[in-house]
Write a structure and sequence with these properties.
alpha/beta, Rossmann fold, 2 domains, six-stranded parallel beta sheet, globular, binds 2'-monophosphoadenosine-5'-diphosphate
């Protein structure tokens, strides 16, 4: 049986094995997909041993996406732009190919959920790996404005400086914007650490949608803030998680799984 894995730490609550099991059933693929909790100092060794022992592909989650970038022999354009890797594949020549499907997974879910991106003003919170992937994918959409807001302002400025010049993109310091946005996306790690958001309510108008790239069974701290600010449409990262997994599955298996039934099944859980 062909073997796939997820590497992360900690990963006790991960949904990825369940998602890939659904995809494999749908597409009649016989694969094994296992979540492997790996100590940070052992990451590179564990991944290389997995591939040497015949592993075909893997996902990588926090805190290893940048370490994964460093161990790849070949990188996709999306991985280079995000400077992080969430999907690995062993090529026929044995080389390890690294890709990043997070940004495309986010945009695919926004499009499937009919969140309007055309002419939309978008605020992206954060300037780490998650934000870079999202920014790059969103910049290929017909949005009118893409504002990057980060606690460390210089980091947001650097992220924009590293991307091709795009007049729609600007960086602002944390809590320094008084515009209302159509879509606000959280790409910080604050929800992961259950930190409270103290953002200005002037960022929100009557039709604002919020999207937390982080997924949790409970309402995330970012969406708690959104509700308190009056936002009516909020998403967490479940849809994005399934869409990014689908892109990885398709890369590995050359067959496109259906996301919608998996999202419906997991939303009910
Ligand atoms: P990831 O790979 O998940 O993007 P990361 O690279 O560590 O993780 O980035 C975390 C992001 O969350 C950063 O933008 C960080 O802001 P700084 O650049 O100022 O560090 C942001 N972040 C983390 N904790 C935060 C907090 N308490 N308030 C605001 N932003 C926070």
């Amino acid at each position: 049986m062909q073997r796939y894995a997820l590497f992360g730490h900690p990963i006790s609550h991960t949904l990825s094995p369940t998602i890939h099991r659904y995809f494999a059933q749908q597409t009649q693929q016989i694969i094994e997909y296992q979540a492997i909790d790996v100590q940070p100092v052992k990451f590179e060794k564990t991944v290389m041993e997995f591939f040497q022992a015949g592993g075909m592909g893997a996902n990588v989650t926090a805190p290893f996406k940048e370490k994964a970038l460093a161990l790849c022999d070949v990188l996709s354009v999306d991985a280079k732009r995000a400077q992080s890797v969430n999907t690995l594949m062993r090529q026929t020549d044995g080389a390890i190919f690294g890709h990043n499907t997070d940004g495309a997974g986010l945009v695919n879910h926004l499009l499937h959920a009919h969140v309007p991106l055309k002419e939309a003003s978008v605020l992206l919170l954060g300037a780490g790996g998650a934000a870079k992937g999202a920014l790059s994918a969103l910049s290929h959409q017909p949005v009118s404005r893409l504002t990057l807001m980060n606690r460390t302002y210089e980091k947001a400025q650097k992220v924009l400086a590293d991307l091709p010049q795009d007049d729609r993109c600007t960086a602002v310091p944390w809590n320094a914007s008084s515009h209302a946005f159509d879509l606000i996306i959280n790409a910080t790690s604050m929800s992961l650490h259950q930190q409270q958001f103290l953002l200005d309510k002037s960022l929100v108008h009557a039709g604002t949608t919020t999207y937390d790239m982080f997924y949790s069974a409970d309402i995330t701290t970012f969406n708690q803030w959104a509700h308190s600010a009056g936002v009516l449409q909020t998403f967490d990262g479940l849809g994005m998680l399934i869409h990014q997994a689908a892109l990885g599955f398709e890369l590995w298996r050359q067959v496109e799984p259906e996301v919608a039934p998996v999202l419906t099944a997991l939303e009910k859980k």
